[in-house]
Amino acid sequence: MSADNPHFINFAYRFAAREPSFDAYPWKSRGAGGLPWEGFEKAAWLHHTTGTPMTWMVDTVALRQAGRRLRKFADVFGDEVVLWLDVFARQPLYEELGVRQRAFGLRNYTREELVTIIRGCREFASETLGRDVRIGAGFWWNPDVLHAAREAGLDALWGLCWDQKGIDGATHRGSPWFPYYASPEDFKAPVRSREDGILVLPWYRADLGNALLHDDHPPFTTHSGELTRWNASWPEHYVRELLDQGLDEARRSPFALTEFFTGCECLDTSGIFHDEEMCPSSEIWENQKACVRQIIAEPGRFGRTVGLHEFTDWHLANHPETTRHELHWRDPLGELPDLRFAADTEALTVSRPDGAIIASQHYLDGRLAASSPEFIDRRTLLKRLAPAAKLPPALAGRLAMKMGKEKDLLVEGVALEH
Q1: Looking at residues 400-408, what average pLDDT do you find?
Q2: 156-160, 230-234, 391-395, 412-416 — which is least confidently predicted?
């Protein structure tokens, strides 16, 4: 592959309402709930003053209350908008569409209801923003969600959560880590082309080796809210390493995409969202600014910053079939051995630099197929590869606090996948 293959970077911000009596994560909605306006203003200021492209992920409550501003942002600054579909608050539009709203995301609706919801949201967004919205965001997927997304005219679904336990009960274990055309029957499995499935986009860039071998822990990503739990200075080192991983992937693959996502609630000090001890919003804000400034300080060094619609249009035009990707991974923390990751429509493999495969996940006819024992039993694999490896104390401490606080908090209907 050529060194000129593109590395795309996207910054996305969820601006969606939260409601304690409805939210699937009631411990994350405090007080009266509502929209995280402070985080919205911060994100807009950061990107509009630096000229860095951004993508808003909005529910219909946000469209109703901030539609004029979002339209102006799109017209003046080129901001992009996609639909946040796994909502955390009541959406009056659903009742207007004749659908009784349920909690816990998209998985609790029939396929017919989902088509009605997605089409209705697209039409409302088009009227409000004066432009078509063809991407839906969320992560609670099943076959009905993917079939409905295709039928309702979406070009892509955003929210692929690569292979980690402990994130919102939405672990997409076994999937590729990069954008691919997903099987409607099993979204974790890639299919040949757009004709066979729908394009799915990652929630973040996963730090593949750490995410694989420390599989109980979710913060090995460019998700600033998760990383802030353990290291307030991570942008100066860790994010640069992950951006370089994206560049390595682009050199060995047709392209690479690095996603930076945070919720506006993560930047909001109003108390709508945060357990400040576990995940301080002030740290997240400083980290987010550092991420943007690091990229603009070296124009073109890391890649091209785009919106999600721009990337999706490029992908559909240039890669109508699922592509093979490869990444030569090096541990940013310096504890684990070098690994090679590769995936296509037949398998995801993890190998040593000498080519010896140490773990694999296979795909067959658009579904997950056989996994090697090492792909399931990561703790044994970690002991074999790096018996002395340890997490940094700050990371281990905050992880223990996070897992202790959230262990019994996932409510019925959001059970962890295995």
Answers
A1: 56
A2: 412-416
Rounded to an integer, what distance in angstroms lies between the CA atom of residue 94 and that of residue 107? 15
The predicted model gives 169-186 an average pLDDT of 87
Instruction: Tell me the pLDDT tens digit for each residue of 119-157.
Output: 999 999 999 999 999 999 998 889 999 999 999 999 999
* Beta-carbon contacts of residue 408 (< 8 Å; ≥ 6 apart): none
pLDDT at 412 over 60: no
Q: Is 236 exposed, middle or buried, given 0-12, 13-18 or 19+ CB atoms closer than 10 A? A: exposed
Listing DSSP states for 257-299 in one string gives: EEEEEEEGGGG--SSSS--TTTS-HHHHHHHHHHHHHHHHHST
Domain ranges in the chain are 7-406
Please spell the DSSP secondary structure of 351-365, one letter per residue.
Answer: E-TTS-EEEEEEEET
CA neighbours closer than 13 Å in the CB half-sphere of residue 51: 4
- Averaging pLDDT over each range in 26-30, 273-277, 324-328, which range is the top one? 324-328
Segment 30-51 shows an average pLDDT of 91
CA 242 to chain centre: 15
Exposure on the CB side of residue 14, measured as CA atoms within 13 A: 25
Helix (H, G, I), strand (E, B) or coil at 143: helix
> What phi-psi label fits residue 199: left (phi over 0), alpha (psi between -120 and 50 degrees) or beta?
beta
Give CA–CA dist 6/267, Å, rounded: 30
The domain defined by 7-406 carries CATH number 3.10.20.30:
no
Helix or strand run (H / E) with residue 313: helix 308-318
Q: Nearest to residue 264, comparing CAs of 17, 51, 74?
A: 17
Q: State phi, psi for 142 to the nearest 5 degrees.
A: -155, 180
